[in-house]
Amino acid sequence: MNWITNYVRPTINSLFSRREVPENLWTKCPECGTMLFHRELSDNLNVCTNCDHHMHLTPRERFKHLFDGGVFTEVKVPQPVADPLQFRDQKRYPDRLKAAQKETGEKEAMLVVEGEIGRTPVVAAGQDFSFMAGSMGLYVGNAVVAAAERAVQLKRPLIMFSAAGGARMQEGILSLMQMPRTTVAVQMLKEAGLPYIVVLTHPTTGGVTASYAMLGDIHIAEPNALICFAGPRVIEQTIREKLPEGFQRAEYLLDHGMLDRVTHRKAIRDELMTVLRMLLGEPPAVKGDLPAPEPAAEPAAETPTPATEPEAAAETAETKTPEPPKADASEPVEPKK
Amino acid sequence: MTNYLEFEKPLAEIEGKAEELRALARSNKEMDVEKEASQLDKKAETLLKDLYKGLSAWQKCQVARHPDRPHCKDYIEQLFTEYTPLAGDRNFADDHAIMGGLARFNDRPVIVIGQEKGHDTKTRIERNFGMARPEGYRKTIRLMDLADRFGLPVVSLVDTPGAYPGKGAEERGQSEAIARTTEKSLALKVPVVSVIIGEGGSGGAVAFATANRVAMLEHSIYSVISPEGCASILWKDAEKMREAADALRLTAQDLLKLGVIDRIIGEPTGGAQRDGKAAVEAVGKAIEAMLKELARKKPEALVRDRRQKFLDMGTKGLAA
What we know:
heterodimer, A: alpha/beta, about 15% strand
């Protein structure tokens, strides 16, 4: 502590307005240690340009790159009973929730949206690991159910991007009950004959893996993603031996028959399009960056369809008209630039 | 020889004293201790009643895991006839942690499935302490399929610390096996009833308890994670399991309020471990009642109701 640190530095700092400079311009790759410039990293979908390590990507960020023109509409998820067990550990659960909301700017650990990928209308759900480790509680359960119901209503496939540390302990048994609950959601899709594709991202563990994340028609994983039920530390403690290299990583699971494919993040969009269009019996997709779908391209789009009428909604889906934003079921979202 | 739990120490002292007195009297014929001893007996009885009236969540965990509690095997032997175990997942192995097969319950053919913990070191190891591996879940799926095809109700008895955290179990797709079991349970066109007889541990338990009716023994537990595990994650201290057990609301009483289970089966005074036969009988009555409730339902209604039951889970909070 001296005059320089106490007085000169703050003065100099205040001269250069810091507000214009983002907090973390540089990110260090946890795998290879390369310093990556934020813009370059985000253009590369948070994949290290040096070693291809796939870092965390929020659902909002992912969807911006996934959907045509970066445009998607949020599907409303019913708000569950708050803190059903009145859970308290070292902190109160509502306080932990609020802290997570403040930190991420998101409501909860799953984002459900609808939009078009290569002109293929889909519903997508993305789990947010940065929100309380993406843990599955009532809200995530509601989100999975809402996503499935919306997909069935619009007769669209559902793409699930999973990422979770497991169940939300603070919701106790009710988080466990989300396992059968989300399984019912998957069954709705299957019964409606709609494709359900799971993209497993790092890490997908616990009750999430043991329910909707392992029930896809097709399982695609991002490279090196940890995918397991019991985590490696728990297993090491139980069997008291070192686990092999790459244990429970995507490539390991591929070798053991649990996944269909391990795909680089940048190739996932094209792969989803290809697979979905074949499953749906559609002609090959137009690949590449497409502009946002024209909202008023067809007259059908001008009459807003009530979300409560599945038949009408289905009709518009069949003619592949971009869905008009529905006031009662969803709110339009502009991608953050 | 009774295995006393930590919180039963005062009881152990009194019962020990009574036992001592009687032993003394046996070696010394002139002594008359019966009056004193029976007084102690009475005292012990009141104490036992009091202890078990107000068990804390953590104490219930201990009772639920008590080694003398009747296990799956005891229930099958006492409640079912013509039990014919069916083995194997037709894929990899037979999982001895899972008992299951054809049997008659009150003369009616059913499929009975359950986790068996074992009763001594040898059988515990053989049964892997009631922790199923993927082949156990896949055997369960196979048996459920059999039940579905031949219209047999499924009765499941849940008693497991959880899925087995092992290398092989992960390699062979533990998660997928659990997910598929839940999926299969939700699709069954036959009545499915479940009783949690001891420990209902996490994903390993829920895959067996995705039923039309779920009952719990009075002092059994059902939780997303063990209190010790929860304490070490949220409190960063595994010794805080008492607090964790309270916070998790894992007792039958709380779970009934939350709408997760449908009924509580009373246990004999001092827990099922003190009178196994009576506990098993009580469970038998509950199974009978639950099957009766479902007997008239059409296959489609059974599927629809079961799904709706789980879709509704968590819509009400703890009203306490």
